[in-house]
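Quick one:
INPUT:
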């Protein structure tokens, strides 16, 4: 029964994936405008962040849309097709679910944040519009 579910959901993703990506592009929000100095500081802070994601995951799309809205150049790592990224996500965060935001703190410690709602709230608080 488990293989049947996997085949079903894989087929569903293959069919719906292109439509989800098209919708993401068509509804992409315009990013906020900051002064060049402020955007430079945001860009510097974003170097400590990485988003592990699947391209067609609706929850990942939600996070990417918020990143666009807040004009955040956060590195996006494909954990679906890149085995190294998937292994890093599993080793660092403890599970392979996405989206997951990797946060390197100022003291060098790394924190892994799962759940799209938590990630969006974190980004809104850290980088207010």
């Amino acid at each position: 029964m488990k293989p049947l579910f996997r085949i079903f959901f894989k087929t569903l993703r293959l069919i719906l994936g292109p439509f989800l990506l098209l919708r993401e592009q068509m509804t992409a929000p315009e990013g906020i405008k900051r002064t060049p100095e402020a955007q430079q500081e945001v860009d510097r802070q974003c170097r400590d962040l990485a988003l592990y994601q699947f391209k067609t995951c609706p929850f990942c799309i939600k996070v990417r849309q918020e990143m666009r809205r807040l004009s955040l150049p956060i590195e996006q790592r494909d954990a679906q097709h890149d085995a190294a990224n998937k292994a890093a996500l599993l080793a660092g965060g403890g599970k392979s679910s996405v989206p997951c935001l990797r946060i390197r703190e100022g003291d060098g410690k790394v924190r892994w944040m799962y759940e799209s709602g938590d990630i969006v709230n974190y980004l809104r608080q850290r980088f207010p519009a």
